[in-house]
Every structure is written in structure tokens, then in C-alpha cells.
Amino acid sequence: MECVCCGSSAVTERPDCTAQGYRRFRCRDCGKQFNERSAGLLNRAQYPSDVIALVVLWRLRYRLTLRDLSEMFLQRGIVFSHEAVRDWEAKLAPILAGELRQRRHGRGGPRSRRWHIDATYLKVRGRWCYLYRAIDRNGDLVDTMLSEHRDMAAAQAFFRSAQSATGQVPNQVTTDGHGSYPRAIRSTLGRRVVHRTSAYKNNRLEQDHRGVKGRIRCMRGFKSFDSAERFCRSYDELRNFLRLQSRHNQHVPANRRRLLHLRRATAVRAILEAA
Fold this sequence. Notes:
globular, 5-stranded mixed β-sheet
């Protein structure tokens, strides 16, 4: 443990704890006192970190509105408003998405170098925006990006983001034949990448769109572009991390599903609590 003020390692633990049960420390060099959460994003929050982590996890994972979550926790005697849920999501969702994105960087075999790319529509501030999404041959997430336009610049930005997220250059890319893709692939990924244009060969990705589309249906759109971009990326990263199949149409027994889900959900909560 290091001091959050001066960075010194001359830190001693105090015998008492905070109201939420967090350990307190004192720096012998600068004399400042702090606790386990002093350097985190939830320093000023009056609720325990495990409660906030569970709220954000359920917010991203399940089809629940902000008010649904506040009512659910009200049954357990924990009182907070829907605006508190919005604030916690804005703080912790980017941290979770960045950590999960970093964990899958550079992973995957030959099948992960065959990408399926398509754009679907989302309504933001009453206007239609384009959500670029890509999965590999196994069905794992490659990348997701929200854009106000569907043009050459947006396609190039998405390919650069996907290459940065995976740390790989694909051998094959399948698209729906939009005119912006061929030049964007050649200029960003290289001329050796095989480009297939067929709407029918992208049916797997078209079906995969139903996850994010069904999740945001209960939200009735987004009020700002930043919140839409943050939520869509965090949702896709979490959904991919909790995905139990390692290949397309793989059967996973029920007991194995429960074990994997509990293990991965616990890892997600640990990331959120440590933020």
C-alpha cells in the first residue's frame, strides 16, 4: 500500500475502519489519512463497492431500466435513485470495457482471422446512427464502434480500432458489399486481405445484432452520442466475456454453464470493485 497523496510506502494501518467497513491508513511522511477507496472513482460514494458493482453488472447484462434497478434494490433496503445508477454506469462502464478489451488482445487462432463485419442502426437524439460490429468465425467479438455516418472515414476508423483491439490483421473479411468497404480494407488492412461481399454469408452477424438491439429496446433510445457509444461498447465487451461457447453452435452442459457464468461474473465484479 502506497500513500495516495505523496506515493510513499511508509504507510501504517489504523485500528478503526470507515462506516462502510474499509480499512484506514496513515502516511508517516506526509501525515495524510486515507482508506482503501481513496484513490478510486468511487471515493465519494456512500454505498459499498460490491453493491455498486452489482448494479453496474446488472445494468449492462440484463434488460433493466435505471428505475428497475433502483426499485429492485429498494426491496433489500438499499435506497438510491435512478440518476445514481446512471452516474455509476458512466464512471465504471469504460473501466470494465477497457479491461475486458485488453484481456482479449492478441488472443485467438486461425479462425479468429476471418472477420464478419456489418453495421446496424441505433437512434440517438432522435437521429439514426450506425453501430459497426465485427465478429470472427467462432462468433467472438472483434470490435464495435458507433458512428454518426456510414462512409469511408468511418469504415477506416473501425478497421483501425478492430486491428488495435485484437492485435491481428485478418486473412479474410466478409461484408454486405457497401461501397466504403473495399478501399477502406485496402488502405487500412492491406491488399492481401481477401474481401468477400455477400449478405447471406453474414447471416451469423445479422443474428448476433439481436443481442444489442434487444438490450436497448427497453431504453427507448439514447439522449447523447457519448452515452450511446459507452453503453454499446461496454455491453458488447461484457456479453462477449460472459459468452460460454468457444466455437459456433457448441453445446455446453447446464452444470458447466452455471460454473463458467459464476466464475466470469465474479471476475467482472472484481474489476468493478477495484475501479
